[in-house]
From TrEMBL:
Source species, domain of life: Bacteria
Keyword flag Cell inner membrane: no
InterPro entries: Zn_peptidase_2
Keywords assigned: Membrane, Transmembrane, Transmembrane helix
Record organism: Neobacillus piezotolerans
Protein name: Peptidase
Transmembrane segments: 6-22, 119-140, 146-168, 195-215
Keyword NAD: no
Pfam (any one): Zn_peptidase_2
Amino acid sequence: MFFTPWTILILLAFGLSLWAQFRVKGTFNKYMNVPATSGLTGAEAARRMLDENGLQHIRIECVKGSLTDHYDPISKVVRLSEPVYFGNSVAAQSVACHEIGHAIQDKTNYPMLVARHKLFPVVNFSSGVAPFLLLGGFFFKLSGLLLLGIIAFSAAVAFQVITLPVEFNASKRAKDFMIKLGFIKNNEERSAGKVLNAAALTYVAATLVSVLQLAEYLWMFTNSSDED
């Protein structure tokens, strides 16, 4: 009943998303075993990058888990997973500095990050109601309800699209500062790039899935309107 011309594309994109997740874990694990010549831990590299950018007030905390690293713009805290916080590998430094890239974006009011922050409350609400509106529109054949669901889902898609430049920019800032401050040298630059690119690919794949889903919903809405 819900099989459409878009279904195959969505399944392929979903497969790409799963592959990207496996790749980022594999790449991270691989380069976690490659010590950086600087010998700095992820926490030490993060601290130096923060201080270099006048962000001495931002704290660094260690959290449990793997790849649970993130920057909290509300509390002004960078939280690094244990392998990144204590590790002195190319991967640990790359992930840590990527999160500092977000802290720098916050300080400089990077436009895409500002837009994402403003959109977050809307997405937090719309992502909760969108599934119910979409299902209600499909099952009861109410085009108006379906359209509301599409609009709500569009906000979540917009959030993911905006996230792409935010993540790529944070990775670029990370790599540039890692080279500038001497954290990585020579072949390590390529290794750091692989870690950062693998992580970015997961966002690209997830966004592709969402965009295709939105296209499918729009196609269904158009067809339902034609039938009416």
